[in-house]
Amino acid sequence: MKWITRERPKIDRIACPWLIKRFVDPDAEIIYVPYAEVLTEAHRSGAIPFDLPDAEYSHYDDRCTFDYIIKKHQLKDPALLRIAAIVRGADTDRHDFAPQAAGLEAIFSGLAFNIKDDQELLKVGMIIYDGLYSWATHLFRKKHSQDGLVEQLLLQVYHQNLKQRKGKKAPEWAKTLKEMIQDQLDTNTFLSLQQASKELEINPAYLSREFSKYFDNISFGDYMRKLRIEKACDLIKKNTHSLTEIGYLTGFSDQSHFNRVFKKFTGESPSTYKKSLKK
Questions:
Q1: Rounded to an integer, what distance in angstroms lies between the CA atom of residue 179 and that of residue 118?
Q2: Residue of 212, 18, 215 lying closest to 131 (CA atoms)
Q3: Could you tell me what percentage of the chain is helix, strand and coil, using 3-state DSSP and rounding each to the nearest 5?
Q4: Please, which residues bridge with residue 30 across strands?
Q5: Could you tell me the residue ranges of all domains in the chain?
Q6: How far, CA to CA in Å, does 271 sit from each of 188, 227, 256, 274?
Q7: 3-class DSSP assignment, residue 49
Q8: Is residue 90 within 8 Å of residue 105, measured between CB atoms?
Q9: What are the strands of the beta sheet with 48-49, ordered from one edge?
Q10: For the chain, is the Cβ count within 10 Å smaller at the N or the C terminus?
């Protein structure tokens, strides 16, 4: 599903996509556009608008959009409630809600200042919120002064686990899924996470969480987009179709979406890529 909000995110518009992708819609595509274009683009693309006045997913009472998503989807994880207080405090300048709120605001203010590409900022933000979630789950009672031996033991366990994973064979479902994806790619159809989980008879949340371990260390959505762009590159090299046709053949009904995703993975637009091949 597509989710859309205002460009230049900082607090809530980074926290909400993290919450959506981790706990609501693992295959979510997050779109940032200028404020005046959000509702028009949402109507055109069928995306769900969030963190926007008059949108369903928005601030309410003294709460922010992050709080509304938790309420709407009945997320009961205590760690999310701890994070919600921090996000709310940072997003509304109420640092009395949680002592960590001021730090979160400072971090993302600095990141937003340094990183001008919204998708790149979101990518960094996902890592930061993953870390915050681990703290809110396991470490929120622990003081920094208690670090030392325990921290070293955790690192030791982590590295041992890393070595075990390197020698670990991919499970049968991963092999089957790779074949399913290739079959879909060969026939110009594209698999969703929900379809894959149904075919494999695996819980979609589990599949989303485990997928990156066996598929290039990226999410299901990014892996599928990567394959589609690789196929687009092959079609451009063959020079038998127009760029519009190639976008359609690789599953992009929207040409601007095709251009945006292509540039994300290759660093240049389809037309520039095609010109460079001629040179």
A1: 34
A2: 18
A3: 65, 5, 30
A4: 3
A5: 2-142, 172-278
A6: 22, 19, 12, 5
A7: strand
A8: yes
A9: 29-33, 2-6, 48-49
A10: C
Query: How many CA atoms within 13 Å lie on the side-chain side of 64?
Result: 23
Each residue's pLDDT tens digit, 209-253: 888 888 888 888 888 889 889 999 999 999 888 998 888 888 877
* 104: Cβ contacts below 8 Å, ≥ 6 apart: 11, 86, 87, 89, 90, 132
d(CA 267, CA 279): 17
DSSP state of 169: P
CB 65 within 8 A of CB 12: yes
The fold of the 172-278 domain, in CATH, is: Arc Repressor Mutant, subunit A (1.10.10)
**Structure token pair of residue 263:** 């540039």
Structure tokens at 213: 């371990």
- Regarding beta strands 29-33 and 48-49, do their DSSP bridges make them parallel or antiparallel, or are they unpaired? unpaired
Structure tokens that stand for 155 in this block: 């690192």
Query: What tokens appear for 2 in the block?
Result: 């597509």
Contact call for residues 21 and 28 (beta carbons, < 8 A): yes
d(CA 262, CA 259): 5
- pLDDT value at residue 175: 86
Residue 171 near residue 214 (C-beta atoms within 8 A): yes
Q: What is the model's pLDDT at position 199?
A: 83
Helix (H) or strand (E) holding 223: helix 220-238
d(C-alpha 30, C-alpha 27), whole Å: 10
pTM for this entry? 0.54
Confidence at residue 186, expressed as pLDDT on a 0 to 100 scale: 72
| Amino acid residing at 192 | S
Side-chain-side CA neighbours of 147 within 13 Å: the count stands at 8
- The secondary structure of residue 251, as a DSSP letter, is T
